[in-house]
Sequence to fold (904 residues):
Amino acid sequence: MATNILMPALSPTMEEGKLSKWLVKEGDTVKSGDILAEIETDKATMEFEAVDEGKIGKILVAEGTEGVKVNAPIAVLLGDGEKPGSVDISAAMKDIGAAVKAEAAPKAPARTEAPKAETPKAAPAPSGNGTRVFASPLARRIAAQKGLDIAALAGSGPRGRIVKSDVENAKPGAAKPAAAAPAAAGVAAASGFSPLPDARLFYKAGEYEEVPHDSMRKAIAKRLTAAKALIPHYYLTIDCNLTALMATREALNAAAPKGKDKVAAFKLSVNDFVVKASAMALMKHPDVNASWTDTAILKHKNADVGIAVAIPSGLITPIVFKAQNKGLADISNEVKDLATRAKDKKLKPQEYEGGGFSVSNLGMFGIKNFTSIINPPQSCIIAVGAGEERAIVVNGKIEIATMMTVTMSCDHRVVDGATGAKFLQTLKAFIEEPASMLL
Amino acid sequence: MADTFDVIVIGGGPGGYVCAIRAAQLGLKTAVVERDRLGGICLNWGCIPTKALLRSSEIWHLMHRLPEFGFSADNFKFDIGKIVARSRAVAQQLSNGVGFLMKKHKITVIAGEAKLAGKGKLTVTKDGKSADYTAKNIVLATGARARTLPGLEPDGKLIWTYREAMVPPSFPKSLLVVGSGAIGIEFASFYRTLGADVTVVEVLDRVLPVEDEEISAFAAKAFAKQGMKLKTGTTVTELKKGADNVTCTLKAKDGKTEQVTVDRVILAMGIVGNVENIGLEAAGIKVEKTHVVAGKYGETGVDGVWAIGDLVGAPWLAHKAMHEGVIVAEKIAGVKGVHPLVTANVPGCTYCWPQVASVGLTEAAAKATGRKIKVGKFPFIGNGKAIALGEADGLVKTVFDAETGELLGAHMIGAEVTELIQGYVIAKTGELTDQELSHTIFPHPTLSEMMHEAVLAADGMALHI
Fold:
């Protein structure tokens, strides 16, 4: 029997994606595990494998199509002995037409209208995440009364409009985590923050170049706005003396075995030590290695440490999983691999979603100290500055030492001040005396 | 080789022909089977011809008020034959119109009686000859007919159903109408306005029993003032036919009986679904209380067979059937995002004088849900346009959820309310609350301003009372 091949959800948060490339053509026979297509999400390009075997009867979505909704049919797979002509694809075609069109249509006017505005006027009120939420007045009112975030709900009304029954069937806090980030931004607007006016109102057309958002830019804007608006951040700063760490690093790197091509098996960076130290400290302070939910705090059993990686179009935070069990060389090589693949947009969602803690390092740019925005669903992130020679006072005497400033952003709902401070003490101890990580 | 279609609709009434048009619009090869006339009961023997009759009686009523508007005339009469002829012409014109619509949408019209004949198969019999058809989808839209009870059977001469009441060969001097739902009350209104002595018998304790109690009471008062005799909580125990009259035995709730002799009796005790002789049982389609059991999208549980309209559940109204026809056609075509019919948003209209229209919950039903409600009312006497029209008798009533502002129901009685109710239906369908309705600007001077006032009145904010 002919079955539709549906647009896959490559991550829990994926709603739509770009079908960037077909690797099969109509008439090809495929078996389970064959790569059918490359799908591009806001963060990564992924290969999409066949689950069933059969023959590709019809490709419904051309490669290069953007905004293909998850679960929209993208191709028809024929069973044994079926001919392409015997498949009624009209229904499937309608689905796909609707899925793609619905996405494409509303964008155009928004883009052309705004720049023309010459007199400052109220911009069409965007909710926090920049997209209008379609909901009936009654649904909005009931949601407000129940304390529900209407933007987090899926609409079952005409064109996805949120109607009374959608709100009635929802429970506070029951929204999927996937919906939480964009939803959260909606709350900001709904709870009285006036949306910012469109920046174009302040500049003359022609005096700037307009670069439309790509999907990663949208995702960054959504997630970070939500995180900063909804998570009660506070910050703890501590200085670490790197003298011992630098010596250890030099010794280990010098001793790195070389392969046939004379390339060292590893080259440890300061950051690799920081990641390892973070993992060790997290195991000692499980209260920091935790995530907030409306009903409970999730304490993670492993130290899954995210590493913020700048890539040309934005940033991404791939995760070194179970870092507590990994040696420095493993961590170092893993981070290099993740960073390389992040730049090529080849990461799988499970490699960057989740995690218990993050490390962001701008030391290589000479930044001394900065603060980061927490990367939900995590509760803490450390911002690591440059290792630099500073004059410090030791036993009443001024000495020169290589120092590094670490600032941790904490979610106060999960991590109280003293808890965060104790964690940083431990982290500092591991960094200042790397050998203690062996204990 | 049998003719093959994507969709065959059995029954060319408002549910069936609309379903066929929508299916054809969606590119499906469609046919309609009709045993009588396109347009079904609604168009030929129901909604439409009665509206034509009631228009005549309305004019008659106005003729008696000529001096009030500055006219004088005397010696005016009516000719029941011509009134009926106009009503038939209206029905004929519209039935022809449906035929034209079928042609326009390239829908095949098959004359005859259809019967399911196995999966995707259909036999249509006409004048003893039968032909076979196959269809991927079959939509049952066979409608309904008047309910009869033992001892209360129509004979077509002295004891009528709607069908005979619509084409009276002569004007009866006196009538007994059994049942005070929309059909009974419309005929009672028509005949009473033209001068017949009309008695209405209703087994329940009020006329128009599905309407809000306050509206029922308002209507009863208006009908009584017109000289209609209303006997609620009363049943008919015997109809004894004379040469040209019927002696009816009525039994009140307290057990007291009385006898009334009238020229004609009209039976309007509800409807039963046309479930016979279409092969439902053999096909395995479930029937309960003369109606097909269907899912929210008209699914019968048998693959490729759907059911809509009066054949399925209440409310038994043409516009509900039409909407179901559209839903089923879209489901068959695989249209995305088809929504099931919401019964609470189906309006009901009765074209008696004064007219009655409503949507959603009555005040009592809203209270029974246990929620806190607020009720707004506005009388026609407070409306400028109503007074200018000389139609100052009527009431508009709204029922809201006091906490959410949801419009739970709206109930109206008075001139032209059947044309007004759609405003509240849009509000309910779009889930507008009391706030949006309050902020809506209604044109002045119109009867519709009363709808605004009735919303404001729910918060004690009505302006013109």
Remarks:
- The longest strand of chain A covers residues 397-411.
- Residues 231-438 of chain A form a domain with the Chloramphenicol Acetyltransferase fold (CATH 3.30.559.10).
- Chain A has three domains: 3-104, 129-214, 231-438.
